[in-house]
Structure formats: C-alpha cells, structure tokens
Amino acid sequence: MGFSFSRNVCRVIVRRRPGTALVTGVTGQDGVYLARSLVADGHRVVGVASPGSATLAARRVYLDGVEIEEADVRDAAALACLVEKAEPDLVFNLAAFSSVGRSWAEPELAVAVNQTAVEVLVAAALDLRARTGREVRLFQASSAEVSGEATASPYARSKAAAEQVVRDARDSAGLHASIGRLYIHESPLRPATFVSRKITRTVAEIALGKQDRLVLGTLDVVRDWGYAADYVEAMRLMVDLDVPTDLPLGTGRPHSLRDLVTLASEAAGLADGLSHLEQDPDLVRPADTPVLVADPEPAAAALGWRAATRLDELVGRMVRVDLERLRSGVEERVDYL
C-alpha cells in the first residue's frame, strides 16, 4: 500500500507557536480530545461538525473555546470555503465513515467521506498556500485496516485511496502532509455502535441489573487497543516534524476481544462476566483480520512517542463512566474524559 518508514531517521520536532487549526470530525472522540489539547496550548481551533447533528448538540459540553462550523464534508464547495475562510496553519482530517461493518452496506458513503473529502481538503490546502504564501500542514487520520487482511472492505479501500491522495500531494506539490495509520483506540466518548463501547455499556447494565446478557460475534480477533487521548498527542507531534512522514500509531500490545470482555466484567464487579456472554454468528463481519497489532517502534523513533495507557486502565475508565451515566442519567459531562 505504499506505506513505509525508517526506524533510523532522526527527525526534528519543533512545537509550533499558537496558530489556527482546522479539525474535521471535531465531535468524534479524537476530535474532542485533540481540540481540547490545541485550545489548552493557545491555538485558535475551528471545528467542523455535521449540520444539525445530535452528536454536536451532545458534545458541545466538551468543546469550550472551539469555533464550531457546521458543514457536511461531502459538500465539496462548503468544505473548500471553510478552509478559505479559516485560513488554518494546521489541518487535522479526523472526519471519517469509521464503521468497517457498515461500509459493506454503504460503500458509496464510505468513499464520499473517507476519500473524496480528502481530495477536497488537500486541494484547498494547496490553494491556501498559493494564495497566502504560508505553509499549511495536514494530518490525515488513516486506519490499520488498510494494512490488514480485510483490505477488501469498502472502508479499507477508501482509506487506502485517501492515503494515496495525501502522498501524491506531498510528493508532487510539496504539501507538508503526514499520515497516521491509527490502530484501534477508545475512550468513554466512543459511540455504543462500536464493539468496545457495546461491551463496557452492557456489562455496566448487567452490573446494575438492567440487562442480563452481552451478545457478540467472534471473540477471537486480536487487536491493539489504546486510549484516544494518547493518540491525539502523536498527531500533534507529527505535524510538528520538520519533514512529514507516515507512521503506524498503536500500543504494540495484543489482546483478544475475549480479554476486553473479561477486563470490562472485572471493572464492573461481575464475578463471572463471561457467563453473561452469548455469541451470534450473524454479528460476524463478511471479512475480518484475525490479528491487527502495531509495531510501536517507528513512532517511538520518529516522535519519541509511545502509547502510555494500559488496556485495563482504559477499559476500567470506560466502565466507570458508563456506570455513572446509568446511575445519573447524564450522558455527557466534562469529567467523563
């Protein structure tokens, strides 16, 4: 897939002075953690969110100090206009159609969000550079699924195509553009449609007597789960590099889905969480990669970065927050982060 890196290249990182950062997908878990980190360091942050989104209404509590612009990333004219108006120094493209499973049913939507919108952002960044003479730096959030065995999924194909768009702009036009292939990372802000949050939410419900079973597909897939707050710091380091690069971002620590269920059950105080488990073959994806684990050494060498949060810490936090949500009835609160 054209993704390469060197463990032996010494790169220079200079923390950029506060400027303007445009963050697409600002209401997603990565967008929230990244926007808050940038605001804390004095950056002006313009966050792009889907118009009329219920997620935006819920997530505003986390986004103090962020200028919210509502735009559909599939609207090329609106997206290009946003870049022209905001004149960002940094562009973090985190907007994505991020469900591998759903992409089989909605492949055109996956392409529109994951590929075509990237083409628009890259062209707009180059236009802004030509108009102002200022360097514009871009971070493209890609996915470990691009390098997995399930590369036939519409999700993986669209992400791979987006990588090539970014790489071509870097190689042919000199755009300072870096690609992070993100391995699975979670937080209490992960939507319940994702298996990790489905697990933490359901075991919390079981612990409180609101549910009696957890229904999943296969339990044997092995993944590399990290904490979103750690990963956004790697994104910031990548745009600060003197020379842009492509890196896998992950913990390097393998765990099965069964491990995640066990850890979540323990965090919820369930004596035998697996006893509540039910497997449903209909929940198995059409194609899946059995093992998907990062090599953490390239990011350590290039950025001095390693994912700091262990899976038991991460899952414990997610379960505690889900328990509090169920007890309080409050779904979004700043201290949940």
UniProtKB/TrEMBL annotation:
| EC main group | lyase
Similarity annotation: Belongs to the NAD(P)-dependent epimerase/dehydratase family. GDP-mannose 4,6-dehydratase subfamily.
Q: Which UniProt keywords apply?
A: Lyase
Q: Where is the NAD(P)-binding domain?
A: 22-318
**Known EC number:** 4.2.1.47
Q: Is this entry keyworded Lyase?
A: yes
The source organism is: Nocardioides panacisoli
Q: Please report the name of this protein according to its UniProt entry.
A: GDP-mannose 4,6-dehydratase
Which SUPFAM superfamilies does the record associate with it?
NAD(P)-binding Rossmann-fold domains
Cofactor or coenzyme needed: NADP(+)
The keyword Lyase is annotated on this UniProt entry = yes
